[in-house]
Specification:
heterotrimer, A mainly alpha (about 240), B alpha/beta (about 240), C mainly alpha (about 230), A: mainly alpha, C: about 230 residues, mainly alpha, 8 helices
Chain lengths: ~240, ~240, ~230
């Protein structure tokens, strides 16, 4: 196969992993700062109390899960078109990161919901969408682990990712239609109402940190995947 | 066919990899009408991959296959019209009768009067009275006769056979050799892949030895089976 | 275009003929329908729930199961004796294979639906005669929705070791929008609400079908071609 020579590819992969790890460490530190700010430096919301502060974690995680899923879908479409294996490695790395973010969102949601709504779960738009993203990620990753030929695995997972991406707006629309007929209780909305300045600042900071963290994870995982592929290439001779 | 026309089947630089596994590397071959190429090689040499590439159901990673000058690709249905494939799998549906199986194949191939063609094919295979049975009730040898009838229902110029002698008793093997020889006499071409060279030796006009994805020998059949087998073993060990 | 449809009909015809011969999928789908019928009927509290309230959910669970059964069979039968290779070798476009499988699966599920719907109407005491047109339309739209994507997935999962487990895992998220729409519309129709109230859902279902069938036609060749 044409492409970079094995040792150059391994070096490039190692560099990507290193960069990814560094970004991850920096963003983890930044995340700690965000936690501190969220707990001590933001006002406590009147109706929901301390539990509301989970939203600084929950909302960015949800956002990132969705953003990453779009990336997986788009990169997968590019793979089907260009057939470059690196695109497949990137999509898979992004999916592993995305499933982590959606898992965070799905656990933080109920932790927030129980004290605030009195229920562990609500079928509101955001939670439902992220639940679906989670299922789609799990499906994507399960399929990958069940296939052993790299080209077949790449092709099939690309198809799942593309179909999944097209599904997302429909899930949203379905929930919206459902909600206009069965609205949630107005009093305790799990979303963010008009935000005072300090809350918005911390939210945006948290969002930025989460995105950076996501980038770090994806790059590191991508680097590892490419290193693995390069190693297999060399061992075959 | 006029000699000035190109070969019926031509492969140039044919290669196929599965990730890090290079199944075929740089295979060239040419086949003219009436010729039969027998490909011999140990298991894992890439023989089945070669046939799938020639049939146009697998995409090469490099190189191309042309049949009657036209590039064969999965995305180009018409490029497969001249090809038939026989595998050690029967390609038959257990829930359909033999006749229904052949009618289905004939319809897909666009054969005119599919029922007539199916009945004629079963008759020629000596299975006319069993046309209403399921493939399940047939022995391996008989199933293979139906598979071959299926592959030939549209009278392809090129027949590809993957280990066709596997599991056949000597009578069925003899019958198979007879039909292939008759086809060659009518100017049809065939590529036959086997790890039992003795079974197919008489049919070959060209022989090739495949090992680890490459030809270690490719040329006209010459000499006796014993000589060639000795040579092939030497080449494969070396 | 004509080629594609002609080949698709040949493939669909073959699948239906084979299924009518063996009837395994048909029987399991109908047995499941009977099971749902019994469980739902005996588990409800007569004082709190009218039977017709349960009918939409029971109906659509049954239809979804019928679809899964058809989908599981669609490509496993091609795998048995590597018949898919013969299909791929034939001079037919890949889209025709998809379309043929889709039509075959749809015919199967529609057959189960046609038998189950009147049965459920009887046992759940639901009034379907006046709204039959709407029910048929909804059933058609929603069924196309999950079978379209399911056909692509079954072509993929048949290559994996735990195919019957893998297919529902992949397909679940894709079944939900059509199912939500179907159950909502069915419930409203049985409650004798006007068709205009459910127009939004029906539109959503139609758009879903159009978009997914198109995309599936486009990606299916990538699934079957090596």
């Amino acid at each position: 196969m044409t492409g970079t020579a094995p040792s150059r590819e391994a070096a490039a992969a190692a560099r990507l992993t290193r960069i990814g790890m560094r970004i991850t460490l920096v963003s983890l530190a930044a995340l700690a700062v965000v936690y501190v700010l969220a707990i001590w430096r933001t006002p406590t919301e009147a109706a929901q109390g301390f539990a509301q502060k989970i939203f600084y974690l929950h909302v960015p995680a949800a956002w990132c899960a969705l953003l990453i899923f779009s990336v997986v879908g788009i990169v997968s479409a590019l793979y089907l078109w260009l057939k470059d294996a690196r695109l497949d490695h990137f999509a898979a790395a992004a999916a592993e990161t995305g499933v982590a973010f959606s898992a965070v969102m799905l656990t933080s949601g109920p932790l927030w919901g129980k004290p605030v709504w009195g229920a562990w779960w609500q079928w509101d738009a955001r939670l439902t969408l992220t639940l679906f993203l989670f299922f789609l990620y799990v499906g994507y990753l399960s399929l990958r682990s069940a296939l052993h030929d790299p080209a077949e695995r790449a092709r099939f997972s690309a198809v799942v990712a593309i179909l999944g991406l097209v599904l997302v707006p429909f899930v949203h629309l379905s929930v919206y239609l459902f909600r206009t007929i069965h609205p949630l209780p107005v009093v305790l909305k799990p979303s963010a109402p008009s935000l005072p300045g300090s809350m918005l600042e911390v939210l945006l900071l948290s969002l930025g940190v989460h995105m950076l963290l996501g980038l770090g994870f994806v790059l590191a995982r991508y680097g590892i995947a490419r290193a693995e592929a390069a190693r297999l290439e060399v061992s075959d001779g | 066919m006029r000699p000035s026309e190109g070969p019926l089947l031509a492969a140039t630089g044919l290669s196929r990899s599965f990730g890090a596994l290079h199944a075929l590397r740089g295979i060239d071959l040419e086949l003219h009408p009436g010729e039969t190429l027998v490909v011999f090689g140990p298991n894992g040499a890439g023989k089945s991959t070669l046939l799938r590439l020639l049939a146009g159901i697998m995409r090469p990673t490099a190189g191309e296959v042309r049949i009657a000058g036209r590039i064969v690709r999965p995305g180009d249905p018409a490029s497969r019209r001249a090809t038939g494939l026989v595998s050690h799998h029967s390609f038959l549906y257990d829930d359909l009768t033999l006749e229904e199986n052949l009618v289905f194949a004939a319809r897909l191939q666009g054969v005119a009067a599919p029922q007539v063609a199916a009945r004629a094919a079963l008759g020629a295979a000596g299975l006319g009275e069993r046309a209403g049975e399921s493939p399940r009730s047939l022995s391996r040898g008989l199933q293979q006769r139906v598979s071959i009838a299926r592959a030939l229902i549209h009278d392809p110029a090129l027949l590809l056979l993957d280990e066709p002698f596997t599991g056949l008793d000597s009578a069925s093997a003899r019958r198979l050799r007879g039909s292939l020889a008759a086809r060659a006499g009518e100017g049809r071409a065939a590529v036959l892949v086997t790890h039992q060279l003795a079974e197919a030796w008489e049919l070959a006009t060209r022989v090739a030895v495949l090992s680890a994805g490459r030809w270690v020998f490719e040329g006209p059949r010459a000499g006796s089976l014993a000589e060639f087998t000795a040579r092939a073993e030497a080449l494969l060990d070396g | 275009m004509g080629d594609v449809i002609r080949a698709a009909l040949i493939v669909a015809g073959k699948d239906l003929r084979a299924e009518l011969r063996s009837r395994t999928a048909l029987v399991s789908a109908l047995v499941f329908a009977a099971l749902i019928l019994v469980v739902f009927s005996f588990s409800r509290d007569p004082a709190r729930l009218a039977p017709a309230d349960l009918a939409p959910s029971a109906l659509w669970i049954t239809f979804a199961f019928a679809a899964m059964t058809a989908l599981n069979r669609a490509f496993s039968v091609e795998r048995e004796h590597a018949a898919l290779d013969a299909l791929l070798l034939a001079p037919v476009p890949r889209e025709a294979i998809y379309l043929g499988k889709l039509l075959g699966n749809l015919a199967f599920v529609f057959a189960v639906e046609a038998v189950t719907l009147p049965l459920f109407a009887i046992f759940f005491n639901a009034r379907i005669v006046g709204v039959l047109g709407g029910l048929v339309l909804t059933s058609a739209l929603a069924t196309i929705g999950f079978v379209a994507v399911g056909t692509v997935f079954s072509a993929m999962t048949v290559r994996t070791r735990f195919a019957e487990l893998m297919l529902p895992v992949l397909l679940l998220p894709f079944m939900v929008p059509p199912l939500i729409g179907a159950v909502q519309v069915t419930a409203r129709l049985l409650a004798e609400r006007p068709l205009s109230e459910v127009a939004g859902w029906l539109r959503l279902l139609a758009v879903y079908d159009l978009i997914f069938v198109t995309i599936c036609l486009l990606v299916f060749p990538s699934v079957v071609d090596e």
